Amino acid sequence: MDFKPVKNVKFVEGGVCAAKGFRANGIQCGLAHKPLTDTDAANDAANNALPKKKNDLALIVADTECTAAAVYTTNKVKGAPILVTKEHLKNGKARAVIVNSVNANTCNADGVEKANMMCELAAKELGIAPEDVIVASTGVIGQVLPIEPIANGMKSLAEGLTYDGNPRALEAIMTTDTRKKEIAVQFEMGGKTCTMGGMLKGSGMIHPNMATTLTFITTDAAISEELVQRALSDVVKVTLNRASVDGDTSTNDMVCVMASGSAGNKPVTKEDEEFEKFQNALYAIMMNLARMMARDGEGATKLIECAVTGAETEKIAETVAKSVICSSLFKAAMFGEDANWGRILCAVGYADADFDINKVDVKIGSEKGVIDVCKNGAGVDFSEDKAKEILGEEVIEIIISIGAGPGSAVAWGCDLTYDYVKINGDYRS
């Protein structure tokens, strides 16, 4: 799946290491709970997949102090790393990120202690203050996080930091992900070329309710901490917050941004044209990561993009788009490549928003073409064979008009397959 273009940005390689002055690394410290068997190895080789015994501890470090911001899950149950990171980011500054997979460090009596220890261990090796470290964890909830493997691996992790270490770090944050998700862009700001890069993990427990993932973004642009937070809080609403896989919002969701200022642009301190350029670059990063996350939903075979226009407000359009991509019946129909437009209209109809259902038009599309399946709230004749051909593609578009208003929105989801149940039926074993 190619990146979706955004004006005034250029896609480049490097992920979180693309921006000036950022190093990263990932190692296998011993947290992995699924040993690599001969059968696993054979299956992985055949499918070109990551081995089961993969990296499980990652570090991202900036050469200089960064302005930083984050958004977090709205789940009442919050992982201990979130509580610690919130404290550390109260001053809007950070220098490093330490993150583990396999174990979420959530619902544990010693969780905050362990999260603080992770920061202290990283800070000692890097020669920085523990308060300058962002900490995150992902994996199984309710199991005590063993700190010994992390402590034993920290020296090797820090010594292996490189300016091209993003692939190793990215592998370390993945859980049920089957695809690596990273991106980087360049853009002009203040007469300087700035770079921004990001990496994301997310495949299950994904629902639009704040951050829906672990996502780490780095940039060499100079911008105040207040405006980094403003940009992130605004952009997450129209990107990651519009992606859903299964309707479950995780306990450890976090998106953070670190901005080093190494590009040399005049620091952005007000909401002007330069701030808009920064926001646009952030949108390019987070929108594409949201699409990649939805495409890699647990067991998924298709990315579904639902675009709604003609609403009285953007909020109404967003509500309708989310309603469609969250419908289990609709998602199952997409897996079966069945143009059951009635399920789309049903999901539109129970959306908590005001509009005239008799003005609703629905099209389905992909690289194989676009066809009308509903006009003015009623079905129209269409070729089932053509519809089947359209729905056979990897990326499916559901195009909905609900009137003549100015409001529009896009949401991203995936199909619902047999494999989703298989993956989650034995997640801990």
Give a short summary of the structure.
The protein has 429 residues and is an alpha+beta fold. It contains twelve helices and 15 strands. The strands form two sheets. Strands 1, 2, 3, 4, 5, 6, 7, 8 and 9 form a nine-stranded mixed sheet that branches. The protein has a six-stranded mixed sheet with strand order 13-12-11-14-10-15.
Descriptive report:
The chain has 2 domains: 10-295, 4-Layer Sandwich (L-amino peptidase D-ALA esterase/amidase), CATH 3.60.70; 303-425, Ubiquitin-like (UB roll) (Roll). Helices cover 32% and strands 25% of the residues. It has helices at 38-47, 80-88, 111-126, 147-159, 166-173, 225-237, 273-295, 314-325, 328-335, 341-349, 384-391, 418-425; strands at 10-12, 22-27, 57-72, 93-100, 133-137, 181-189, 192-201, 214-219, 254-259, 303-311, 361-366, 369-375, 378-379, 395-401, 407-414. The strands form 2 sheets. Strands 1, 2, 3, 4, 5, 6, 7, 8 and 9 form a 9-stranded mixed sheet that branches. Mean pLDDT is 90; it is low at 35-42 and 44-51.
